[in-house]
């Protein structure tokens, strides 16, 4: 046999051996990767129809199961009801001390209630407590009628707000979640609403109550016990809203905070209350065991003073629209993340709330989070007299 043929055979054998070794290596690597992915995709809510686990600070989804499936939410509907009430208080439309009168319609609501009577008056604060703790359907309708003139008007507000929040699988037909046609949402949309509600720090003062009384000074005080038993038994939990109907089964949008890390867990369609609570707890445990969160800026916090050349004020404080934070796996260092402020061309006139730029969070050169920066006040164009005074001041300063 010639030397050339022997070399050819040896090369062929070597190539085959190399190919087999490479195939074995890549097969093992693929198997290992598949195993890792499988571990990462453990079903934390096996018996719930859908579920979502979300970091409150960044909105990052940590676990999802059928998160966009349209389902009846039962009384978890009241997350949106409470959000609109909190916004109305913040905007000065109502005060917590305002008296809310109960209509015949509101008093006629079935299901969970605080047993309001037609014509009965109660402060908004007490009504809200009845909604948040006891899931009062009657209180929800009474407040809705007070704020919008009718339940139908309030429902329209709910749907408009859901659209603004980016809820793509939501349509409300009432304010309390009692069974009705064309009333649905998804676990992911509920997480979005819950995250928005939690921007109002005062809400957990209500949703975290385990037991209290309404009508304390009357002859018929009413004992409230939170429908969310986890606020008593799960460390750090202080909300948000349970729900149950025969159609929806057992639902819950829950939130818990440990240290500076707050998470939101939503479960829909669980077969029993104990199963729902166990799966919510399991999602929470997973989040707290594997992640930590750092809040860098709270909503409305001043990030930078921007000079306005021809504005009626010299400097404009720009603020965060939402919470700005970073979500890190346990073991990650905060120093690995960088902040960068990117501004638009800022010129007067400027409206309060106008987007003027963004704060960008980076890691390893890549963008991992971005949050809008907005104007904290209105800024008009400076008048001639103001500009003249500034010119004179600049001359005097230069001369000195």
Automatic annotation (TrEMBL):
A single MF term (Gene Ontology): serine-type D-Ala-D-Ala carboxypeptidase activity
Any GO BP: cell wall organization
Domain Peptidase S11 D-Ala-D-Ala carboxypeptidase A C-terminal: 291-381
Reactions that this protein is recorded to catalyse: Preferential cleavage: (Ac)2-L-Lys-D-Ala-|-D-Ala. Also transpeptidation of peptidyl-alanyl moieties that are N-acyl substituents of D-alanine
Alphabetical UniProt keywords: Carboxypeptidase, Cell shape, Cell wall biogenesis/degradation, Hydrolase, Peptidoglycan synthesis, Protease, Signal
Positions annotated as active site in the UniProt record: 75 (acyl-ester intermediate), 78 (proton acceptor), 135
Leader sequence residues: 1-31
Amino acids binding substrate: 241
Enzyme Commission (EC) number: 3.4.16.4
Similarity comment: Belongs to the peptidase S11 family.
Protein name (database record): serine-type D-Ala-D-Ala carboxypeptidase
Record lineage: Bacteria, Bacillati, Bacillota, Bacilli, Bacillales
